[in-house]
Amino acid sequence: MNLSIVIPLLNEEESLKELHDWIVSVMQSNHFLYEILFIDDGSTDQSWSIISKLSQENPSVKGIRFQRNFGKSQALHAGFKAAQGDVIITMDADLQDNPDEIPELYKMIQVEGYELVSGWKKKRYDSVLFKNMPSKLFNWAARKTSGVKLHDFNCGLKAFNKTVVKNIEVSGEMHRYIPVLAKNAGFSNIGEKVVQHQARKYGKTKFGMERFLNGFLDLITIWFVSKFGKRPMHLFGALGVLMFTIGFGFALYLGIDKLFIHKTGRLITDRPQFFIALTAMLIGSQLFLAGFLGEMIIRSKKSEARYAVSEELNIFQEEEAQSS
After folding, report:
1. Which CATH architecture has domain 3-228?
2. How many CB atoms within 10 Å of residue 206?
3. To 10 degrees, what angle do helices 133-146 and 210-228 make?
4. N or C: which end of the chain has fewer CB within 10 A?
């Protein structure tokens, strides 16, 4: 199979049929073998009914329905797990991503050898004050922090080699940073393509200004996890040793001063250095213990389900294919 098109969605009943027909037209004109994976992230409208109808009319349409809204990252994770194509395309369901871009993205993966290609909505049809400017600031911070030179981390239109999506874990709200997750997993051949951005045709955006604050917090998280997620003792242990050493230094100074220099001076407990020493050694011990506990948790951690699926349509897992 050439292509798997993974589409996470939430309450997009107006656009699904039009998006499906547009994608099918592009697939047929380019003679692609394909599948369309709609991931319904707890929609409360008629989205799932429409997906069910489309899957009956077109066997290439597959669907996964969550029991409730778990978030875009979890929807992408489920789609990546089920995808069988050599190249995986992700796009939003609101018709703001143009399916006509898919053949060129496919070529960049299969012919030019990129492992991941991210879309860049260079010209946007969003509010300049409330979306464009915060987005530029957000992308600048992401570039500086991650070292991945992309202009638009949050673009939903991306293309992946199959190997990439099978080797990254998209959790929490980390869908914005899939290129960073890929880089951290060892996939460094990351490209970018200017894509056409279209104004929203139906409904309204599901994201508000809070997503930019959450995005910055997630950026800090992914930086921390990428550097210390597998070795928390390297951070907490080092800080703990530093703080304990500072505290011990003050304590040693106080002891020498009292025993050999100012033998008849103030009591040690009356001096501020005593409390600095005590506090620093306590904090140092706690930080060291936090690093040790982090190491123990990592070694004993078991994978937990991050979402619950209530229905599936035409989903055929690779594990089943290998066992049959």
Report:
1. Alpha-Beta Complex (3.90)
2. 15
3. 0
4. C
pTM over 0.85: no
Strand partners, 313: 63
What is the spatial distance between Cα 40 and Cα 101, in angstroms, rounded to a whole number?
A: 23
Cα–Cα distance for residue pair 57/40, rounded to 1 Å: 18
**For 49-75, b where at least 16 C-beta lie within 10 A, e where not — what string?**
ebbbebbeeeebbbbbbbeebbbbbbb
AA letter at 127: S
Contacts of 235 (CB under 8 A, 6+ apart): 227, 228, 291
Local structure of 236: helix, strand or coil:
helix
Averaged pLDDT in 10-residue chunks for the chain of 324 residues: 96 95 97 97 95 96 95 94 96 94 97 96 66 75 85 92 93 85 91 86 64 72 76 89 95 90 84 93 94 82 70 71 47
**39 touches 90 (CB < 8 A):** no
Contacts of 217 (CB under 8 A, 6+ apart): none
Residue 40 backbone dihedrals phi, psi, to 5 degrees: -85, 110
Residue 64 backbone phi and psi in degrees, to 5: -130, 130
Domain boundaries, the chain: 3-228, 232-300
Contact in structure between 36 and 7 (CB atoms under 8 Å): yes
CA 318 to chain centre: 23
Answer yes or no: are the C-beta atoms of 185 and 167 closer than 8 Å. yes
Determine which helix (DSSP H) or strand (DSSP E) holds 162, and give its type and residue range: helix 162-165
> Tokens for 190?
């990351």
Q: Is the Cβ–Cβ distance between 155 and 195 less than 8 Å? A: yes
- Three-state DSSP class for residue 129: helix
